[in-house]
Amino acid sequence: MAIIARARALRKKMTPAEARLWVRLRDLRSEGLHFRRQSPRRGYILDFVCLDRRLIVEVDGGSHHDEDRARKDRVRDVVLAREGFLTLRYANEAVLFDIERIVEEVRAGCRALPTRLARCANHPPPAGEGEDDL
């Protein structure tokens, strides 16, 4: 439960770069792309995630340049990739000064990934295949 409380607290105190990107990601809802912010997953808090496309967007501050932090980020990205997530990482400065390019990359990344429905299309229905015996 502590991680949920932490995620809620982070939603209330986003960095200027996160807040700016959040406004733009919300606009993508009109295109069918729904992002969540500060979303808990596997013990991590994801800055932004489109669950339908399994795309994560991270906004990294200066602390992510530290070798230990960068190693932890790589481990986290691998753990989430095993669950089918793709992570896009952007520096705070890039979000603040090149937001148009970033939004376009996020949009293109989402469009290149299958939706949840498409990923499940080859699975048999929950009740099994075929018609029920009469």
Summarize the structure.
This protein has 134 residues and is α+β, with helices and mostly antiparallel strands.
Secondary-structure element string: HHEEEHEHHH
Termini, distance in Å? 48 Å
Report strand %: 15-25%
Structural class: alpha+beta
Structure, explained:
With 134 residues, this protein is of the alpha+beta class. It has one domain (2-115): 3-Layer(aba) Sandwich (Endonuclease, Chain A), CATH 3.40.960. Helices cover 46% and strands 19% of the residues. The chain has six helices and four strands. A four-stranded mixed sheet has the order 1-2-3-4, with helices on both faces. Helix 3 links the parallel strand 3 (55-60) and strand 4. It starts with a helix and ends in a 15-residue tail after the last helix. The relative contact order is 0.15. The model has no long low-confidence stretch (mean pLDDT 86).
Descriptors:
134 residues, Endonuclease, Chain A, 4 strands, 46% helix
Helix and strand topology:
Layout: H1 2-12, H2 16-27, E1 36-41, E2 44-50, E3 55-60, H3 67-81, E4 86-91, H4 92-97, H5 99-112, H6 116-119
